[in-house]
Amino acid sequence: MSAVDVITWIIFIITIYFAFFWLITFLGMGQEKKRKALKKFPLVSVVIPAFNEEETITGTMKSVVELDYPKNKIQIIVVNDGSTDSTEKKVKNFIKKHPGRKIMLISQKNSGKWVCMNAGLSIAKGEFFACLDADSFVERETLKRMLPHFVGRTAIVLPIMKVKNPKNMLQKVQWYEYIVNMFYKKIAAYINCVHVAPGPFSLYRTSVLRKVGGFRYGYATEDLEIAMRLQKHNYRIVQTMDAEVYTIAPDNMRELYKQRVRWSKGSLLNAISYREMLFNRDYGDFAMIQMPLVIAAGFISAVLIVILLYYGLLKPLYNLAKNIVLVHFDIMTLIRNIQLNANILDADFYRLVIAVFTLVITIAIFVAAHKRSKEKIVKYGFFPLLVYLFVYYIALGLIWLVILKDLAIKKSRMRW
Amino acid sequence: MVRKLEKSRYWMAAVFTAMIFAFGLSVGMLAEQQRTKYVTEQYQEQSNEYESLQLQYAYLTSLSAERENCPALQYSLNIYIQHLEDTRLKLENYHESSSQINKAEFDTLKRQYILAEIKAWMFTQKVQKSCNETDIVTILNFHSKDCSRCDDEGMVLSYFKDILKDKLFIFSFDMDYANEPMVDILKREYNITSAPTLIIENEKKEGFTSTDELKEVLCNYYKNASIC
């Protein structure tokens, strides 16, 4: 066996181990317990950080105002992070049109999302604190469905995040991705292993947030940083599957690339900065399974992508080119004599078993994820689904490759 | 405060992972057995083929030594060589993907193949001698595992084989194969010291022989081939 074989097998074993672990966890989960309906309505502060969001800010605020919740129990704080467009004007107009509502506008010079959220936190009066990105929209029932989950040491309750009106291929692919990711987070939450509280309507207990010192920069991913910090303080993070929030997903490769570089870097670097939890039994499953997974994920995808690209693409292409040169570009003779020497016995059964197993698990997860989030399985077409299953992760692996290269030469500088 | 850690889940995942790999391994081993069986059958067929060919040869020569029989002889030879080539492809495929388990079996098959190859080469020479006006060229190709240009040489050879088809017979030998004394005898006879080395009829070419060089040599032997 060559070194490449050994590495591939180690990666296969690790990946399949993780898959089984989550599968076993899922099978032990059972159906979700019905939460009691809310009897009293605590004050909730919703902070909307906004940087040049003139197109979506009104819709975002509107979705909060229209929440099925007592009007006087919602405090809205919009933090304008030095927008250079008409965001501020739009917010002021909105405030004028809704005189009976508690809406505040804070303007600051551009200093990053985490600073906005801390500014909001400093004047938040609510028992609960929600963050809502200015490109996201809550459903009427969302808040009511989330609040009953705050019991015991629960510090954050997460809604199910879905892609808003996916129009093009890229957004449709992300629609499927989000559904599967939310399902994975649901399983992780069952053993309190959630490591991220996304910007679209994560709901915090304000007192806990203040106790741990509010938000930090966290390598431009304050949502990962706060979740890992709360895990370190042994709080609980809950994922709901029926409280929806819709967010606008990148509609072009450039934006998606930028977003994913930020996310991936953030998850790796934040996990590294909380590495004292890694394999520390005191932190339970979070330390034993989720931390290793978050740290290893990038390396695993990058190595797999290198192997795939080299053996699946570069090497065959190089050989083909070399052979064409060897026969002085007499391509016709080469083509005419291609022999398909296919024989069922030639297949590598060992790898085939692993591949079939992986495919079956993937499809099972996909179906279960849709069932749990009550969505139709091919809601946005079959083709985007195929792209998601067979192409998308290769692209994400490539992003990891770029990130690891960047981190290795330490030239990168983080931006918001 | 100590958080929950359900150890059984970790062990179960480990057991299931081991099971999947064990399952994959046993399916692989089963397939390996089937392969060996299949290839062995192929070789059995191959040796029957050769016996049949020898019988044909004896029959044809005993009837008369006249030239009319040459086309029939050549036809039989081509069939034999084609079968030999098929077996080689199969052997190569299986050898690449086979694990250590059946290494001994594969070695035996490889040796049998080399013997069949040498027999075929000798048979070809007989045909060339019996039929005066043959338009057949034989090439012996000596290669080795750690030889950087041997694959390229193989590519060039199979390119000419594709064009010349039954006018060209190529017999390839692994020069490091020590199990079979016949390989040593051939090496000594032609004084082979490095790979790749080609013996084109009786002409020796050491080192990589390019498409152009090989074409030039081949054209000396063919009276009217399309490549010249």
What is shown here, in short?
The complex is a heterodimer of chains A (416) and B (228). With 416 residues, chain A is of the alpha/beta class.
Which descriptors would you attach to this protein?
heterodimer, A: 416 residues, alpha/beta, 13 helices, 53% helix, 13% strand, globular, B: 228 residues, alpha+beta, Glutaredoxin
Descriptive report:
The complex is a heterodimer of chains A (416) and B (228). Chain A is of the alpha/beta class. Chain A is 53% helix and 13% strand. Chain A has 13 helices and 8 strands. Chain A has an 8-stranded mixed sheet with strand order 3-2-1-4-7-6-8-5, sandwiched between helices. In chain A, helix 6 (169-190) packs across helix 12, helix 9 (253-273) crosses helix 10 (284-326) and helix 10 (284-326) packs across helix 13 (382-409). Chain B has 2 domains: 13-132; 135-228, 3-Layer(aba) Sandwich (Glutaredoxin), CATH 3.40.30. Chain B has a 4-stranded mixed sheet with strand order 2-1-3-4, sandwiched between helices. The termini of chain B are far apart. The mean pLDDT of chain B is 81. The chains are: A alpha/beta (416), B alpha+beta (228).
What is the tally of beta strands of chain B?
4
Most strands sheet of chain A: 8 strands, mixed
Question: Radius of gyration of chain A, Cα only, in angstroms?
Answer: 24 Å
Unreliable residue runs of chain A:
none
Count of domain modules of chain B = 2
Give the DSSP E fraction of chain A (strand runs of 2 or more residues): 5-15%
Give the chain pair forming the largest contact, with residue counts: A-B, 44 and 40 residues
Number of helices of chain A: 13
Pairing-aware structural class of the strands and helices of chain B? alpha+beta
Approximate shape of chain B: elongated
Radius of gyration of chain B: 24 Å
- On the 0-100 scale, what is the average pLDDT of chain A? 92
Q: End-to-end distance of chain A, in Å?
A: 45 Å
The CATH homologous superfamily of one domain in chain A corresponds to Spore Coat Polysaccharide Biosynthesis Protein SpsA, Chain A
Chain-averaged pLDDT of chain B: 81
Strand order of the largest sheet of chain B: 2-1-3-4
